[in-house]
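Study this:
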Amino acid sequence: GTEIHLVLLYMRFHENEIGGRMNSKIEKFGAFLGNQLPAHPDAVRRTLAAAYGLIGIQAGRHPSGKYTASREYLQAYTARLLSDMLKDPSSSAVVNIFLPCEIFHALGIKIMAPEALACYIANTACEKPFLEEAESHGASDTFCSFHRVLMGLAETGVLKKPALVANTTLACDANQLSFRHLAKLWHVPQAVIDVPYEVSPESVDYVCGQLRSLAALAEECTHKKLDENELKAAVARSARSQEYFRRYLAVRPDVHFPESLTPELLTVVANHLYLGLPEGEQYFRMLLRDAETAPKLMSEKKLIWMHVLPNYQEELKEIFQGNERVEILASDLA
């Protein structure tokens, strides 16, 4: 009863938005969840899974109308995916955002990355206890906040162990520490794809060999057999998705989107983790269609925000969001 009431309260005041000032009711919801740790991690997990599951249903069936259809679709799918991962990650993989995931998609293995989950945890206003938990186990307070949230979720027991973890050496140093720590904490296999700096026939062969080993490890951990035709289909979907996105980028500078920082962050996630998924291809197809039918650009300033999304700078949020004179065209989250 209490968990359902809290979820309904959260849904009532949920604005589907990480930017802008946090609603006080959501802050109370997050504070309550934080107070349940570390004594009741199972209750926190169930509440978060229910909340994200309902957000997925709400965004899919009753979109807010704040964003384009493609952005609403992406947020709905991501929320449902995170809800499923929280409920039962035992046959899933925790990965870093730079890992090619077509192998996992072909095997039917669900994936989760710190960037996507941390985005929603912050949107639930309960990231503080997870950050503090990670720091109490040795993570520096200057360590990447995405990875600290993931580590805190694991350390508190809110996020149960997956079948395996997999990461690349590209391009974030946090990968080398957090994923090794998680593999030891969960007692699960870890695959590390070492990506050389220089591109050459030898380096491509080197990475390909590691991806074959990753496929073998995924088969062993999940007791599933990789179907080559399924892999080819996933790679073809990935290629089509990237083509849709290239066409979108060609159109984007000349049109206006009702934009915010959250969909931009999730688009970066989709451009890595969802490549090869039918849902990923659907999103990029919808994104291109939204751009092609969007009104001409109205803003006076057009920005490409590089390096870090301004999560903690309220003044920048207010400039970037809901301001017709300034519009973000793209951003990264390195």
Remarks:
- The longest strand covers residues 326-331.
- The first helix runs from residue 2 to 13.
- The beta strands are 93-95, 111-112, 164-168, 190-193, 301-305, 326-331.
- The CA atoms of residues 184 and 190 lie 9 Å apart.
